[in-house]
Amino acid sequence: MFQSAGKTLSVALCVPRAALLTGRLYCSKTPTRRRVSEVLSGSEPGHGSRFRYLKFELCLFQGWVRSVRPQKANLFLHVNDGSSLQPLQIVAGSELNDPLLTFGSAVEVTGILKKSPHQKQPIELQADHVHVVGRCNPVEFPFKIKERHGLEYIRQFPHLRCRTNAFSSLLRIRSEATTAIHSYFKENGFVQIHTPIITSNDCEGAGELFQVEPSVADNENENFFSVPAFLTVSGQLHLEVMSGAFSRVYTFGPTFRAENSQSRRHLAEFYMVEAEVSFTQSLEDLIKVMEDMFRSTTHHVLAHCAEDVNLFHKHVSPGHRDTLDGMLKKRFPVITYSEAIDILNRSSQKFAFPTDWGCDLQTEHEKYLVKHCGNIPVFVTDYPYDLKPFYARDNQDNPEHTAAAVDLLVPGVGELCGGSLREERLDLLSARLQEAGLEDTYSWYLDLRRFGSVPHGGFGLGFERYLQCILGVDNIKDVIPFPRFSHSCVL
């Protein structure tokens, strides 16, 4: 781009190395499309390897306007394409100002990248063309340019909240955490299994299921699948099928609970990370995978989403970074359920729910145990046998009859992971299913024990709860793109 007597002449330049050496310049028909994140993360034009010749290159940026500042001679825009928290500054001549250039409008901008004279941004775009692709009325737009909107406010606009800094940061963190989890399992020899969403199994035994039926049935007296079918509450039983052929398997996908609750802890649809490990008779093996996955994923997120995480720790949950750093510095302690009950009974705190041996631990109990152990995650093992589902392995201990089960409790959330060794002994499993009247329903599950069965175990981690834990977010509806809960409007 050349300037003369206040006029601007645009020339698209592409300068190969050979052309630089010979002094010849070649015209390019189209500008190079670039993302904001790759430009802001690179070195300054003309110096680093990535941008060595970038100052000669005509670039195209597409995104949404975050701010507009017209001046007498120049127009300043901040444009963000969702690839980073920070926008790219656009500097244009005042003649490119347009009444349609408003906060929230979608634009395409072409120009030449150059070093910025301002310390806060290493690079800016000297624009020669600005085109408004999509208009936005800033008066009617629910988010205002100079206001910081709280999570509760933006939750009212599920179709628009991705346009805010806080929620776009959350979605980038969520994406990076997903990548980190898959990477952890791949690096540790796990095979990913796509478990079904429609199933006839009630893995948890709680009965809080969404039944699946066709909208138009040929015969109202028959089930579409010949048996009642439901949206899955867990992929565990299908992973156990696969654990008969693979020593390490995992799944990561949506699960559903028809719990009629609108509290900050509940969703009707959420994501679960579940894993199954064969040839193990030790809860310590499961505990190691849970803790290593938590640490590996968290370190990855902190390394790749530092700005986005800092936004939450600064504006949403001040002081939470110290809590998170404390979690990562120490190994997670392990206590038994009996020890946990003893800690609760010796506490001076008054609990709303009883703390007798045999009771299920409530959220208030879980949070107290976490604080008691130094406000870091804590594993609780060996729960009462009667509290756990039919597949949990019987410890056969007396007088306290317990199961080889484990939960991971974390600050601010309570239970994050739940798992157990699975009952691989055919006689004990068959007896428990028969006692519950489920032997015919789970005859296929007994077959897994008849043909090449091995000791195995596994666990599930609530992905949204994990995000709450590392970011310090109080309401689970603020860490998922489209929250589904009872009596909510479904997009």
Automatic annotation (TrEMBL):
EC annotation from Swiss-Prot or TrEMBL: 6.1.1.22
One GO-annotated biological process of the protein: asparaginyl-tRNA aminoacylation
Enzyme type, top EC level: ligase
Annotated TM spans: none
One GO cellular component term: mitochondrion
Keyword entries, A-Z: Aminoacyl-tRNA synthetase, ATP-binding, Ligase, Nucleotide-binding, Protein biosynthesis
Domain (Aminoacyl-transfer RNA synthetases class-II family profile): residue spans on this chain: 171-481
Family: Belongs to the class-II aminoacyl-tRNA synthetase family.
Cross-referenced PANTHER family: ASPARAGINE--TRNA LIGASE, MITOCHONDRIAL-RELATED, ASPARTYL/LYSYL-TRNA SYNTHETASE
NCBIfam families tied to this protein: asnS (TIGR00457), PRK03932.1 (NF003037)
HAMAP family assigned: Asn_tRNA_synth (MF_00534)
Protein name: asparagine--tRNA ligase
Organism in which the protein naturally occurs: Channa striata (Snakehead murrel)
Lineage: Eukaryota, Metazoa, Chordata, Craniata, Vertebrata
